[in-house]
Amino acid sequence: MISKDPIDPSASNSFSGVLSEVIRMRSTVKLMIDAGIPFRVVLTKRAYGDMQLSIGSNVCLTFKASATHYLAMKNKKKERSYV
Hints:
By secondary structure, the protein is mainly beta. The chain has one domain (2-82): CATH 2.40.50.100. Helix content is 8%, strand content 46%. It has one helix and seven strands. It has one helix at 45-51; strands at residues 2-3, 14-24, 28-34, 38-44, 58-62, 70-72, 80-82. A five-stranded antiparallel beta sheet has the order 1-5-2-3-4. Strands 6-7 form a two-stranded antiparallel ribbon.
């Protein structure tokens, strides 16, 4: 779940980050969130528009650990990405 304000600050899977990239797809929008480690979030275009987010927006991520997938990124920095 992505929000502008913390939903449950005591949640163990809660991160604050900054929206660093927006990729518009056909019916969805991919967001890259920099929270110390990169997160990729997929929203519907409507949800993205309703949230009125833009590059540099502060966001909060809250999720169940079972809802994540590790993605190895193929780049020179060998960064890790979590979704």
